[in-house]
Design goal:
Radius of gyration: 20 Å
Family: Belongs to the ComF/GntX family.
CATH architecture: 3-Layer(aba) Sandwich
Strand content: 5-15%
Organism: Rhizobium paranaense
Number of helices: 10
Number of domains: 1
InterPro entries: ComF/GntX_DNA_util-trans, DZR_2, PRTase-like, PRTase_dom
CATH topology: Rossmann fold
Distance between the termini: 61 Å
Protein name: ComF family protein
Pfam family, one: Pribosyltran
Length: about 260
Amino acid sequence: MGREITVSMLRAGLIKPWSALADLIYPPACAGCGTSTGAHRSLCPACWSGIRFIERPYCEVLGSPFFHDLGTGILSAEAIADPPVFDRLRSAAIHDGVVRDLVLGLKYRDRTDLAPMMAGWMLRASDGTVAACDAIIPVPLHRARLFSRKYNQAAELACHLARLSDKPLLAATLLRVKRTTQQVGLGARARQDNVRGAFAIPEGRAGDVFGRRIVLVDDVYTTGATVAAATKMLKKAGAADVTVLTFARAVGDLI
């Protein structure tokens, strides 16, 4: 039997020469340090070894990594003393070194090409919550900031997560209606005040989340003020379950 020529094979045959030409013009380089690598959207061994991925054991609610395995279903003291409004938090890596550089590159240096790689790590770290969800929603930017930045880094990550998982992306369901100041440099209480009342769901869109399991996507989790304010709006609209999924998170000392 002769070999079947499929559309995907034809497409691959057409794309391959152009990809080779692109590699000559823009050689593959490490996304962290710029060292030459064998493939685009990859890291060199030195950068890869410097990443602290968040793996089990961790708090089942806040996803805070534990230094010692304390058993199944263990919660951190923070999750017990001050339970979050969202149902759980999952993050791919600790926000330092190369991970911080990747976040800054995506957020401030127009490195949207990093989003597919970062989203892949997030999907792996989601602990099955993306596979079980009904829809993915990015934390939105206010239209004024979106105009100046030209894109929303959380939406870039959410878009690739939706593509990788074949889940609906609801990019217009949650809006930021209050123009907040930058959260960087603010304390925990100031961050909460800054984002209070910042989010809304447009009229007629509450049905997008009512009774549904939502994955709320952002780039970094620090104090949680932003995702908490967004979650409150989603829960008010009737969301049954909200998982916060970020690429990076700040952590203190491991437990």
